[in-house]
């Protein structure tokens, strides 16, 4: 592989990089290929003789031309190196990933270094692209990030229902309380409880009871908005935060949940389960001094729903 005469001093680097696992591409400032090492030949399937003097963007139309042109122009103007990591742009060349250890990744992740090459007059005449295969590292980091995201999600959610767990949900109640203190927008809190849940467990068993809890949670999720937050408060009790919702609109949402649960028929090996829920609603006012007092008022409304016959919504 030969370099143009003005780049003779670059031969030693070419000899070294020809046999290592680093891609090397030398371009003139019009993006015509001047050098193309063995790494590039192997992963592209294009030999150096075939690509010599060809325009890079014509051979690889999927390369982001505007982006690379800006990078190269800056390197040439400032006569300084530029670096790009796979986290900024996963790859420059769309090479298939050939490493068996990271076989789950479809394409090679790449770090890129762009270096200026000056002529005898001291002016930048060419640039050198060094392409590093960092698939192994990137794949491991991405797998770790996915695992951490999953762990974070698991730490925030209730395993049985997929709703927020008590601690996470209470934090959101607290945040909504503080938001009300600042902006005074209407917001409501709902406490919900499965009626006579002990008898469900006693009659059908705990597995059937768990299924009743799951079904109730599914009804809640399907009947609230994306901006609302539902959590499993404990056992068969649930809570819902309804931002920007006054008591009447909260009652409408709760009534929809109540009616849907009332129509549920759950077939289990021990028998068919039907159950109802009671709901207490409290629109936040200036009276509660903290979010716990707000929750207490919603809980008192739930207690009234239970005491007055169950399977109903009470607005406190």
Task: Please describe what this structure looks like.
This protein has 316 residues and is an alpha+beta fold. The protein folds into two domains: 1-146, Beta-Lactamase; 156-315, Reverse transcriptase/Diguanylate cyclase domain (Alpha-Beta Plaits, 2-Layer Sandwich). The protein is built from eleven helices and twelve strands. The protein has a five-stranded antiparallel beta sheet. Strands 7-8-6-11-12 form a five-stranded mixed beta sheet, sandwiched between helices. A hairpin with a 2-residue loop joins β7 (229-234) and β8 (237-243). α7 (166-183) crosses α11 and α8 (197-204) crosses α9. The radius of gyration is 32 Å and the shape is elongated. Residues 1-6 have low confidence and may be disordered. This is diguanylate cyclase. Its EC number is 2.7.7.65. GO terms for molecular function: diguanylate cyclase activity; kinase activity. It comes from Marinobacter fuscus. InterPro entries: Diguanylate_Cyclase, GGDEF_dom, Nucleotide_cyclase, PAS-like_dom_sf, PAS_4, Rev_trsase/Diguanyl_cyclase.
Distance between the termini: 83 Å
Strand order of the largest sheet: 2-1-5-4-3
CATH class of the largest domain: Alpha Beta
Q: Outline the biggest β-sheet.
A: 5 strands, antiparallel
- The CATH superfamily of the largest domain is Reverse transcriptase/Diguanylate cyclase domain
- The number of helical runs is 11
The ordered H/E elements are HEEHHHHEEEHHEHHEEHEEEHE
Tally of domains: 2
Shape: elongated
Backbone CA Rg: 32 Å
The CATH topology of the largest domain corresponds to: Alpha-Beta Plaits
User: Helix coverage percent of residues?
Assistant: 40-55%
Low-confidence regions: 1-6
CATH architecture name of the largest domain:
2-Layer Sandwich
Give the percentage of residues in beta strands: 15-25%
Number of strands: 12
Mean pLDDT: 89
| Structural class by SSE content | alpha+beta
């Amino acid at each position: 592989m030969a370099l143009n005469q003005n780049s003779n001093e670059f031969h030693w680097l070419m000899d070294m990089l020809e046999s290592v696992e680093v891609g090397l591409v030398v371009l003139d400032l019009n993006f015509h290929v001047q050098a193309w090492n063995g790494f590039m030949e192997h992963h592209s399937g294009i030999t150096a003789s075939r690509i010599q003097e060809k325009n890079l963007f014509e051979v690889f139309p999927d390369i982001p031309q505007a982006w690379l042109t800006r990078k190269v122009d800056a390197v040439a103007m400032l006569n300084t190196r530029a670096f790009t990591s796979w986290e900024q742009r996963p790859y420059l060349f769309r090479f298939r990933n050939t490493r068996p250890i990271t076989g789950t990744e479809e394409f090679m992740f790449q770090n890129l270094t762009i270096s200026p090459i000056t002529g005898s007059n001291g002016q930048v005449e060419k640039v050198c692209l060094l392409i590093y295969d960092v698939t192994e590292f990137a794949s491991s980091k991405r797998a770790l990030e996915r695992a951490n995201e999953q762990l974070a999600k698991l730490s925030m959610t209730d395993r049985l229902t997929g709703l927020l767990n008590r601690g996470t949900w209470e934090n959101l109640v607290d945040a909504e309380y503080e938001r009300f203190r600042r902006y005074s927008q209407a917001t409501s809190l709902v406490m919900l409880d499965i009626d006579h849940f002990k008898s469900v467990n006693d009659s059908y068993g705990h597995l059937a009871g768990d299924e009743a809890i799951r079904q109730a949670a599914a009804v809640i999720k399907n009947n609230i908005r994306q901006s609302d937050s539902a959590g499993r408060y404990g056992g068969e009790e649930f809570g819902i935060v309804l931002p920007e919702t006054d008591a009447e609109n909260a009652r409408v949402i709760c009534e929809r949940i109540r009616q849907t649960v009332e129509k549920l028929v759950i077939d289990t090996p021990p028998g068919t389960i039907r159950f109802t829920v009671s709901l207490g609603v409290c629109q936040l006012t200036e009276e509660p001094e903290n979010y716990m007092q707000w929750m207490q008022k919603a809980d008192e409304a739930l207690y009234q729903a239970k005491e007055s016959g169950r399977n109903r919504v009470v607005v406190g």
